[in-house]
C-alpha cells in the first residue's frame, strides 16, 4: 500500500446544521482549499474532489489523487451564472436560459473558455465546463473558499463515483485532506453535460436533466455526442465517455443477455459470491441482493451505492436486471453499459 493511503482523511460531518453552524464547520475545509489542498465535498449528484480551480498546482493534485490522465478536463463549480460567466469567453443567451431554468442543479455547460482558467482545468482545450451545484454544502463551500472549485467525482480513475462520504474515504484515503460528509447524494448520477460550443447544442453525457427538458428550454433540437469515443485519444470530446468507466471490481452482467441466466451466473461467481441489483425481477436464494424502486430516479439514486456495497461484499459477479429502453432511463443505461464493458 502506498504511503498516501495509510492515514484516513479528516472527516467533517455537516448534517443538521443551520447556515451559521455550517459556515463555521466548513472553515477548515475552506482553509485547505485556499492553500491549495484537496477537499472532497457533497454535491446533489455525487461527491466531488475539489481544489481551487484558478490554481494550476492545486488542480494538478486532483489528477494525481485520482490517477486520472491530464488530457481529461475538469468541471468548475460556481455559485451562479455571474460567477460562471467570469470563467467563459462568452455568455450566450442559451447559457442564460439554461441557468435560469436549471441552476443551481445537475446541469454542466461547456462554453468557450476565458484566459483566467488554467490549462490544467481545460486540459489545454478551447472550452471550459461550468456548473452551479444545488447542494447547500457545496454552495457554502464555494462561497467560503472565494473561488470556483475544480472537481471531478471523488473516486480513483475509472472506478465507481461516490454517493457517500464513506465511499470517498475508502476509495481515496489520505490522498484527500478533508472529506465533508453530508450524507447520501440525492440524485446519485453525475450531471448532464451540454456543449454550447456546438450549434445546435449537444449532450456530451446524459444525466437526470433530460434532452426533452433542454429542448423545451432552448426551443431547438439537441443531439447526443456519438458514444464511440476512443479511450486513448488526446483532446477527447468528453473523456468521461471513454468506454471503461464507472466500473466496480466485480464483473457486471445484464440479466437475460447472452445466456446470462441465474444458474450460469451462480456458476461463474464461484468460489466467491453473486450479487444482484434488481427492481422487479425475482432473485434466487443465496444471492446478495439490492432491490431498488422501479423508477429512473430511484435507480439513479441507488445504483452506485449498490455497486459499492456488492463490491465490498466480495461479489465476483453483479447481475443487473434489464431496465426499460426509453429516454427516461438513458442516464442509467449510459452508466450501466460502461460498468459492463
Ligand atoms: O455531477 C457531476 O458532474 C460531478 C460532480 C462532482 O459535480 N462531477 C463529475 O466530474 O462527474 P468528472 O470529472 O468525473 O466528469 C466530468 C466530465 C468528464 O468526462 C470530462 O471529460 C468532461 O466532464 N469535461 C470536463 N470539461 C470538459 C470540456 N471543457 N469539454 C468537454 N468535456 C468536458
Ligand atoms: Mg467521474
Strand order of the largest sheet: 1-8-2-3-7-4-6-5-9-10-11
Fraction of residues in H or I helices: 25-40%
Strand coverage percent: 15-25%
Oligomeric organization of the protein chains: single chain
Radius of gyration over all CA atoms, rounded: 20 Å
Give the helices and strands as they follow along the chain.
EHHEEHEHHEHEHEHEEEHEEHEEHEH
Q: What does the overall shape look like?
A: globular
Low-confidence stretches: 1-5, 227-236
Structural class: alpha/beta
Total beta-strand segments: 15
Characterize the main sheet.
11 strands, mixed
> What is the tally of helical segments?
12
User: What would the average pLDDT be, to the nearest integer?
Assistant: 92
Q: What small ligands are held by the chains?
A: threonylcarbamoyladenylate, magnesium ion
The N- to C-terminal Cα distance equals 27 Å
Structure overview:
It is built from 12 helices and 15 strands. It has helices spanning 19-25, 27-34, 56-66, 81-85, 93-102, 119-122, 136-145, 165-172, 211-218, 262-269, 296-312, 330-340; strands at residues 10-13, 39-41, 48-52, 75-77, 107-112, 127-131, 149-150, 178-181, 192-195, 202-205, 223-224, 251-254, 273-278, 288-291, 315-320. It has an 11-stranded mixed β-sheet with strand order 1-8-2-3-7-4-6-5-9-10-11, sandwiched between helices. A 4-stranded parallel β-sheet has the order 12-15-13-14. Helix 2 (27-34) crosses helix 7. 46% of the residues are buried. The model is unreliable at 1-5 and 227-236 (pLDDT under 50).
